Amino acid sequence: MTHPFRLSPGRLAAAIMCACALGMATPEARAQGDGPRAYAAVPEGTNVFSVYGQFLRGNTLLDTSQVIRGGDIDIDVAVLFYAHPISPFGRSGGLFVVQPMGAVSGSLQLLNGVRTGSSNGLGDTQLGAVVNLVGLKSVPVEEFIKLKPGFMLGALAKVTLPTGSYDSDRLLNLGANRTQVWVGLPFGWNIGKSYLDPHLTSIEVVPQLVFSGDNTDAAGSAQTLEQAPMLRVETHIIRNLNRAVWVSADIGGILGGETTSDGVANDNTQKALTLGGTVNVMLSRHFGIKTTYGQVVARDDGGPDGSMFRVIGSVFF
How high is the pLDDT of residue 285? Predict the structure, then answer.
């Protein structure tokens, strides 16, 4: 005789906690990639709201595809993030919005000497969508925890809008005064008995192409700044330590993105390799904290340099 599958209240809480620990946590747009398990599948109906602090030190602006040669720049921002679940054609997915705000300050080594500057306000808004193409369908948590993990492939699209604070007369800006379109195919393998497995291991690869619109009111002597497409790839090796804690080794690579000022190439194609680590702790079935540190370890003359630290608090509902 068979019995219908049931979850006790305690097991259901553990299932939700585990699912949230896997959830679409925070596409952190730009700095150090989107992060581990940013696009992992979650049970049907799971919403995410996050607030986090992000601190960058190096030679880039908040839009880290903008490398400033000779720059020594500090960026401190708070970011609001919200993800809403969708189920197109029965597949799991989500819509999300990211809004940074904060301050940038620093110095630039110019031909006529060193100049300093600062500004504050809103950064550029980012909107996005991700849909799982191969692997998990959109299912409630009771079915989610019974599924055997495996290969997953998704489709990702994001657009960054020129809504942030920008003035071409300022030395440094939080906004980039241009539109960017990101397209990607995140994929990976989840290795374990189930999504409830406290020792689940995941390998993720997130390749993205970034297409940048022109800034027709560029800072400095040039009027128009153009940038070639850029390839960004991040890889994460993730291990659950138990049902509430997981850790990740993070690797990132950047290639492309040469800029042109008023039609003149700047010979600044970017190549860079970043390494980092992430720790995620679920304090309850509804709330988790994630911290990430990353550092550029190899680069060419046109590539980004510096480090990034962020701490994220997320509510799942």
Answer: 78
- Residue 141 sits in a domain whose CATH number is 2.40.128.130
Task: Give the closest residue to 235 by CA, choosing from 288, 179, 274.
Answer: 274
What range defines the domain where residue 26 resides? 21-316
b/e per residue 60-81 (b: at least 16 CB within 10 A): bbbbbbbbbeebbbbbebebeb
Whether 2 is covered by a domain: the verdict is: no
Question: How many domains does one find in the chain?
Answer: 1
H or E, element range at 291? strand 287-299
In the sheet that 259-261 helps form, which strands lie side by side, from edge to edge? 225-227, 259-261, 264-265
260 within some domain: yes
Q: In sequence order, which residues have a C-beta less than 8 Å from that of residue 31 and are 6 or more positions away?
A: 54, 56, 62, 64, 294, 308, 310
Q: What are 160's two structure tokens?
A: 């960054």
Residue 141 domain-assigned (yes or no):
yes
Q: What residue spans of 197-274 are helical by DSSP H?
A: none
Residues 6+ apart with CB under 8 A from 101: 77, 78, 79, 80, 121, 122, 123, 174
The single-letter DSSP state of residue 64 is T
pLDDT digits (tens, 9 = 90+) for 124-148: 999 999 998 988 777 777 777 777 8
Q: Which residues of 268-293 are buried (b: 16+ CB within 10 A; e: fewer)?
A: bbbbbebebebebebeebeebebebb
The model's pTM is 0.88
Cα distance between residue 98 and residue 112, in whole Å: 38
Let me know if residue 154 belongs to a domain.
yes
- The pair of structure tokens assigned to 32 is 């150090």
